[in-house]
């Protein structure tokens, strides 16, 4: 990867291709049209990630990625799913500290006919890592409240789909807002909905770069929590 990588936007046939893929969901059809996927979706997405990775490095922001480790596959994992369609109908990728999708604390993109957005934060934390995040939020409530307020002021919306109806075990005594809402969230993730034109024009690169800058207080906060319980 080098600084010469330039993102020019997703192709004009990208969304029509993803829509058709959802209609056909057929391996033979995909094989016949794979060149369109590569040209209109996969290659631009790789350019986006690598261009952003170079910009983050220059800015001293510890987020990176490349087209080999950061892009999600178009093939759906159907082993444990009731949905046996072989392909997803969106394009997605994330940049993290180690440049892989296995790490947490990220800037993420999701591009589809249904909804296109970018996001930052921590998603799907479990076990000790999730507890450590909640404990740090309780200990440093004022700091975390300020982080959230700054992100919301910038127009980023918290993802509340995984909000618990009751307090998690060990946090039964928490009763006051905003702390109550914070500890009932499983995901400390913030989103910005973008238009398809933002992705096709190339504007998404600047929006993700800005999000990465604004997200650093949140990411550094969360990394302190998850690193405290990370296995050696």
Give the helices and strands, then pairings.
Elements: H1 14-24, H2 27-59, E1 90-95, E2 106-112, E3 116-122, H3 127-139, H4 141-153, E4 157-158, H5 179-184, E5 188-194, H6 196-201, H7 203-227
Antiparallel strand pairs: 1-2, 2-3, 3-5, 4-5
Helix pairs in contact: 1-2, 2-7, 3-7, 4-7
Helix fraction by DSSP (H/I, runs of at least 4): 40-55%
Number of folding domains? 1
Task: Going across the biggest sheet, name each strand in turn.
Answer: 1-2-3-5-4
Q: Specify Rg, calculated over alpha carbons.
A: 19 Å
Overall 3D shape: globular
Structural class designation: alpha+beta
The tally of helices reads 7
Give the topology string: H per helix, E per strand.
Answer: HHEEEHHEHEHH
Tell me the span between the first and last alpha carbons: 29 Å
Task: Give the low-confidence spans.
Answer: none
Judging by the overall fold, what is the CATH architecture? 2-Layer Sandwich
Q: Provide the CATH topology.
A: BirA Bifunctional Protein, domain 2
- What percentage of the residues does DSSP assign to strands (E)? 5-15%
How many distinct beta strands?
Answer: 5
Brief descriptors of the model:
alpha+beta; 46% helix; 5-stranded antiparallel β-sheet; 232 residues; 12% strand; BirA Bifunctional Protein, domain 2; globular
Question: Can you walk through the features of this model?
Answer:
By secondary structure, this protein is α+β, with helices and mostly antiparallel strands. It has a single domain (14-227), classed as 2-Layer Sandwich (BirA Bifunctional Protein, domain 2). The protein has 7 helices and 5 strands. It has a 5-stranded antiparallel β-sheet. Strand 2 (106-112) and strand 3 form a beta hairpin. The protein is globular. The two termini are 29 Å apart. 31% of the residues are buried.
